[in-house]
């Protein structure tokens, strides 16, 4: 045993004895075998067997799934026209998938929950020690009972014994004890008994690996979807007044008082009786079912205690100001109907007349507001019906997944609108509208005043009414729901049922979520008009809003959404009328569904009318008194924002729509000398129009290139073939000045266009335009900007969820989309890859055929990986291999010809990355994971779509691309930031590229870490995290060549193990030196079992008694080993005992490592001199010259405690001992 400890123990101790016999110390990484060379020269047998799966990767390892994007609505949200914004929405999601990745700890961790699931149904193990304890307890109970009846027995011990013997029950006879049994039969019987009720997964009986150390854990990003905040449902149940004489219409909207912003669009409802609705039937003969909605769903992204639900009521226009029209509702009561019978009849007749004549026009009536915080906290300031609150309260909805929201103050924590007790409210007090205080600014003042105890509004005489509404958290998937575009949201079982409308949210602050569905809505808010200087009868002013496709009146488009109990779309909308007011204010919201492709002829036309409330002869109902307009497109941009427009007295002249009203047109008369008298605001909620000048310019220039539409006017610049390259490069450089929320909203389209410019360099005037460098720089800076500003959207690896989901679900190679197959899954053929049968004659340690076989120095070895061709390439096409006429020259896509040409994205990314400037390289290295994942997905798509998966791995990618990859690894100087990203990248490359080349990259990166990191603990932690991520590969066992036969040590001098093998404890049982060498971390072992050797070498270095290992490093190393062994035990691919035996051989050096470090394992935390002495005793007390073994070592091996040592309560010693036990248990199959 002493000899085993000396020979196969920690090489750090052995090197003191062996000296120069250790050719490569564990602190150095050995040169791995040429994996592809070995696999091609050692093909598996023709017959299938359990070991075959250990010899090669499965033929169906890589698959490409075409996943159809899930649509939330029954009708696809697409316009009639095709637009570039629909690219990502209409395509299938091309998901690159590794079929066996579910066996990796990357996505299927071996956690406590999984451990408990595996332990269900296990037979309880009862051992002799447990039975002895039970027997002793029974004996004690019997003795107590016996002492009670002692007086009934004869006195004296002899008599008592006779009495007990006569009354005792005889034991069962055991005839087998008297039979003669051969020792061999007894051994066989015992062996069979030991195999009964055994648990195959030994590590499954122990606690799960430490999840805190699971650095390889990588969650799949969420599918991109439209943003939705906390959702509340509001149902309008009934609206009753003391008198019912005319129809009343209502609207709901949310306002944030603190932000002074309207945070939702309007929801219009109609609770009138059929009798009242009949008064307006001539004006709305066709009523769409979508306008009959009485319930709505609001979304609130940023909950706040300052949010109010504002309810506004309107009535049909009639003669008189608002106060006069509200008077009957304030003084008359239903109980006094007999008293005011004649007056009521007169009012009804007047209302019927007004509905017939002025039914198209409305006027403000009353308003009120509900403080939502009172609903959430169940403290209402409004009158609440007791009967309603008792009988109509319902149970809370199922608890939903909480979303992360930004918090502005501590008070917002109680504003949880996603989970509160539903409430039915009866609102009884309304405030009459005031004609001169209708603006949003006045409303914010009223709402702020409502929260004060001495509110001015409370002293006003209210309009008595009863509005009953129900407020509750919205269900997860409500039935019969319409989107803001009036599309049917799934599920929608019956289209004839009264729907619920989803109301579009206008978030109080930025929301960083990309567009995933088509949306193109326009909101027009007329605010005020001033006709005080206008002569004549201009008092009852209504503004007609139209969306025009041209200048002819017939070109008004039916894109304006209807309100309530009307048609779904209209060609015009009117603002409410303020009686006898020449300078009215408006609160109207006009919602439009605009076309995707807007031209210079599309514009908004505003026509101002004077409405005659009294019927007069020869006086029309509507008299136009002014005109103005807004051209919607200007220099390719949608015009939005606030406008102060002059108003023309006369109709605009021909071709007016391409000019703005600010232009002084000849022969036109303007109100108030061409001053801006009409204020209007235009907002857009669009996935087509960015509304950002930097993004608009970039997308416009890309469009000009794609359509080859030269010349093109862009503001004051004429874009021609001569300046388009400079303008496009400048626009890409200016993207860093765009608003971040806009960049995020159009992230998918922006990335797709940048990738398009990299993959398809355009040809202008017969010349190739190199835009790859500018596009790469723009992409790098954009990615870095998103990371820095959205730190809350990152996982534990620092990956931004928005970017990660884009790569996973939305990225696709331009113009290389595969033809849709008959099935959803595209996978490789099941034939065995020909690369496994290909014979090569290459150097054992090199995957590049152009490089020398043996490096003279470490620097030369590193340069050998990079390649002999070098990487010094300039940015221009002159010295590039891509230049026309050079080695990699290819025809570029000519927009005027049928030639189709493209570059490979992964090659271009690697090239631009290598030759990038310092600023861009630093930005890209900061977020290297993004470009690594982008390259991996491009590589996988390229291999699959070009049918290269069956090619030998060395022939899949060109040498120059391989050189660029090596250069990226060698020039990675941000080690702490890059460590995990590079590890995941190399993990992915093992499934795609030459695996021997990837092994050499791992070796070179180890050298980089060692050279650049000064802190030993930091160095070891980086290497442990790196190797743990790489070893989490789903084919980790196959990558270690578990079936390879270790050759004898190649050292010219015999090693310590070879010189002492005759006296080894193993040599008495095993004479084969090849088997003995499997227990040591020799150079051949570490070469052929490269990843396993790296892991065990790190473990040995960390557990070295005289090393500088600290507790957290011990934890890292042992946890990595434990996790791997647990994954092997739980892997259904490795259930065969023969397979498990070969896997266990990858960890056989663990046994001498554990034996050598028993003192270190006994107490990691004890740094006292006693522990140091005990650690040294195991080395110093042994005499290397004789065959004796010291007492301390013997006691340690035998399991006896060392003198003055204390038991460690931590579980690491138990874990590593269990790992050793598992290795011995599984490896025993080979020697049975």
Automatic annotation (TrEMBL):
GO MF annotation list: guanyl-nucleotide exchange factor activity
PROSITE patterns reported for this sequence: C2_DOCK (PS51650)
Origin: domain of life: Eukaryota
Gene Ontology CC: cytosol
Domain C2 DOCK-type: 519-685
InterPro entries per UniProt: C2_Dock-C, C2_DOCK-type_domain, C2_domain_sf, DOCK, DOCK_C/D_N
One GO biological process term: small GTPase-mediated signal transduction
Pfam families to which the protein is assigned, alphabetical: DOCK-C2, DOCK_C-D_N
Annotated segments matching region Disordered: 1-25, 133-153, 381-400, 840-860
Composition-biased stretches (Basic and acidic residues): 383-400
Low complexity biased stretches: 840-849
Entry similarity comment: Belongs to the DOCK family.
Protein name as catalogued: Dedicator of cytokinesis protein 7-like
């Amino acid at each position: 045993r002493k000899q085993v400890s000396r020979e196969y123990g920690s090489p750090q101790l052995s090197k003191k004895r062996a000296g120069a016999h250790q050719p490569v110390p564990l602190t150095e990484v050995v040169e791995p075998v040429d994996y592809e060379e070995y696999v091609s020269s050692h093909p598996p047998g023709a017959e299938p067997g359990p070991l075959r799966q250990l010899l090669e990767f499965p033929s169906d390892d890589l698959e490409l799934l075409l996943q159809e994007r899930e649509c939330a609505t029954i009708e696809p949200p697409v316009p009639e026209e095709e637009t570039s914004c629909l690219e990502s929405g209409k395509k299938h999601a091309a998901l690159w998938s590794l079929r066996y990745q579910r066996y990796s700890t990357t996505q299927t961790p071996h956690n406590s929950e999984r451990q408990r699931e595996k332990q269900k149904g296990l037979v309880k193990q009862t051992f002799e020690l447990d039975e002895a304890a039970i027997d002793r307890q029974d004996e004690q109970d019997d003795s107590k009972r016996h002492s009670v009846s002692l007086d009934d027995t004869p006195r004296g011990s002899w008599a008592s014994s006779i009495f007990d013997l006569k009354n005792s029950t005889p034991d069962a006879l055991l005839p087998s004890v008297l039979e003669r049994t051969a020792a061999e039969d007894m051994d066989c019987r015992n062996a069979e008994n030991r195999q009964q009720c055994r648990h195959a997964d030994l590590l499954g009986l122990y606690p799960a690996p430490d999840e805190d150390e699971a650095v390889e854990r990588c969650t799949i990003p969420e599918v991109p979807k439209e943003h939705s905040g906390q959702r509340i449902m509001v149902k309008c149940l009934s609206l009753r007044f003391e008198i019912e004489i005319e129809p009343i219409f209502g609207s709901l909207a949310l306002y944030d008082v603190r932000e002074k912003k309207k945070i939702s669009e309007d929801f219009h409802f109609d609770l009138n009786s059929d009798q009242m609705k009949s008064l307006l039937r001539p004006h709305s003969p066709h009523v769409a079912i979508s306008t009959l909605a009485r319930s709505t769903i609001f979304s609130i992204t940023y909950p706040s205690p300052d949010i109010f639900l504002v309810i506004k009521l309107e009535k049909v226009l009639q003669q008189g100001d608002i106060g006069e029209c509200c008077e009957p509702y304030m003084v008359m009561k239903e109980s006094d109907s007999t008293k005011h019978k004649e007056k009521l009849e007169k009012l009804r007749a007047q209302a019927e007349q007004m509905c017939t004549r002025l039914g198209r026009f409305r006027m403000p009536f009353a308003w009120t507001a509900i403080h939502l915080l009172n609903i959430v906290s169940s403290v209402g300031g409004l009158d609440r019906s007791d009967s309603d609150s008792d009988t109509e309260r319902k149970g809370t909805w199922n608890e939903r997944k909480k979303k992360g929201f930004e918090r502005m103050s501590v008070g917002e924590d109680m504003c949880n609108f996603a989970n509160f007790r539903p409430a039915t409210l009866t609102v009884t007090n309304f405030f009459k509208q005031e004609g001169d205080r209708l603006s949003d600014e006045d409303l914010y003042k009223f709402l702020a005043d409502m929260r004060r105890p001495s509110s001015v509004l409370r002293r006003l005489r209210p309009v008595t009414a009863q509005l009953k509404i129900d407020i509750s958290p919205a269900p997860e998937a409500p039935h019969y729901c319409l989107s803001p575009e009036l599309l049917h949201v799934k599920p929608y079982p019956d289209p004839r049922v009264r729907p619920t409308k989803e109301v579009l949210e206008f978030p109080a602050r930025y929301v960083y979520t990309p567009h995933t569905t088509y949306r193109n809505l326009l909101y027009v808010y007329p605010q005020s008009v001033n006709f005080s200087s206008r002569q004549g009868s201009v008092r009852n002013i209504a503004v007609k809003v139209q969306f025009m496709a041209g200048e002819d009146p017939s070109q008004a488009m039916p894109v304006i959404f209807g309100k309530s109990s009307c048609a779904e779309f209209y060609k015009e909308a009117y603002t409410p009328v303020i009686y006898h007011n020449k300078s009215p204010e408006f609160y109207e919201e006009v919602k439009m569904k605009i076309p995707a492709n807007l031209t210079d002829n599309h514009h908004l036309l505003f026509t101002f009318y004077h409405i005659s409330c009294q019927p007069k002869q020869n006086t029309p109902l509507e008299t136009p008194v002014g005109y103005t307009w807004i051209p919607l497109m200007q220099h390719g941009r949608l015009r939005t924002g606030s406008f102060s427009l002059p108003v023309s007295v006369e109709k605009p002249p021909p071709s007016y729509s391409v000019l703005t009203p600010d232009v002084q047109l000849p022969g036109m008369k303007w109100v108030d000398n061409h001053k801006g008298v009409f204020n209007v605001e235009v907002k857009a909620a669009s996935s087509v129009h960015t509304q950002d000048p930097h993004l608009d310019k970039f997308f416009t220039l890309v469009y000009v290139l794609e359509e080859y539409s030269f010349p093109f006017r862009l503001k004051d610049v004429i874009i021609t073939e001569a300046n388009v390259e400079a303008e496009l490069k400048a626009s890409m450089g200016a993207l860093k000045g765009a608003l971040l929320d806009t960049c995020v909203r159009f992230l998918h389209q922006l990335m797709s266009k940048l990738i398009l410019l990299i993959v398809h360099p355009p040809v202008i005037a017969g010349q190739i335009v190199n835009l790859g460098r500018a596009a790469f720089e723009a992409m790098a800076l954009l990615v870095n900007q998103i990371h820095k500003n959205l730190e809350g959207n990152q996982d534990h690896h620092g990956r931004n969820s928005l970017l990660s989901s884009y790569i996973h679900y939305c990225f696709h190679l331009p113009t290389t989309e595969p033809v849709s197959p008959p099935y959803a899954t595209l996978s490789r053929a099941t034939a065995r890859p020909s690369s496994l049968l290909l014979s090569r004659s290459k150097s054992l340690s090199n995957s590049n055929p152009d490089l020398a076989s043996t490096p003279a120095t470490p620097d030369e070895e590193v340069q050998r990986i990079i390649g002999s061709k070098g990487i010094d390439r300039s940015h221009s096409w002159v010295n590039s291999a891509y230049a026309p006429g050079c080695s990699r020259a290819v025809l570029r896509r000519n927009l005027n010809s049928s030639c189709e040409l493209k570059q490979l994205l992964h090659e271009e990314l690697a090239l631009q990355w290598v030759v990038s400037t310092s600023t861009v390289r630093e930005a890209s290295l900061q977020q290297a994971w993004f470009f690594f994942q982008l390259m991996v997905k491009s590589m996988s798509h390229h291999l699959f779509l070009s049918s290269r998966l069956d090619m030998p791995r060395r022939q899949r990618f060109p040498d120059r691309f391989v050189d660029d990859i090596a250069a990226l690894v060698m020039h990675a100087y941000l080690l702490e930031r890059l460590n995990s990203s590079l590890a995941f990248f190399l993990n992915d490359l093992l499934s795609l590229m030459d695996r021997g080349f990837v092994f050499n990259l791992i070796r070179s990166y180890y050298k980089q870490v060692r050279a650049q990191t000064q802190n030993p603990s930091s160095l070891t932690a980086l290497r442990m995290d790196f190797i743990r991520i790489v070893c989490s590969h789903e084919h980790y066992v196959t990558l270690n060549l578990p079936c390879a036969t270790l050759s004898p040590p190649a050292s010219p001098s015999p090693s310590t193990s070879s010189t002492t093998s005759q006296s080894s404890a193993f040599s008495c049982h095993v004479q084969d030196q090849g088997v003995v060498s499997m227990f040591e971390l020799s150079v051949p072992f570490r070469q052929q079992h490269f990843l396993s050797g790296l892991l065990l070498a790190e473990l040995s270095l960390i557990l070295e008694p005289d090393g500088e290992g600290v507790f957290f490093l011990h934890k890292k190393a042992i946890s990595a080993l434990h996790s791997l062994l647990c994954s092997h035990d739980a892997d259904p691919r490795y259930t065969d005992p023969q397979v498990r035996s070969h896997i266990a051989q990858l960890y056989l050096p663990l046994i001498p490592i554990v034996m050598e470090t028993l003192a270190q394992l006994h107490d990691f935390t004890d740094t006292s001199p006693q522990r140091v002495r005990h650690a040294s005793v195991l080395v110093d007390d042994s005499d290397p010259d004789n065959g004796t073994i010291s007492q301390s070592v013997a006691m340690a091996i035998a399991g006896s405690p060392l003198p003055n040592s204390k038991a460690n309560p931590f579980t690491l010693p138990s874990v590593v001992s269990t790992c050793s036990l598992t290795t011995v248990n599984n490896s025993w199959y080979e020697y049975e």
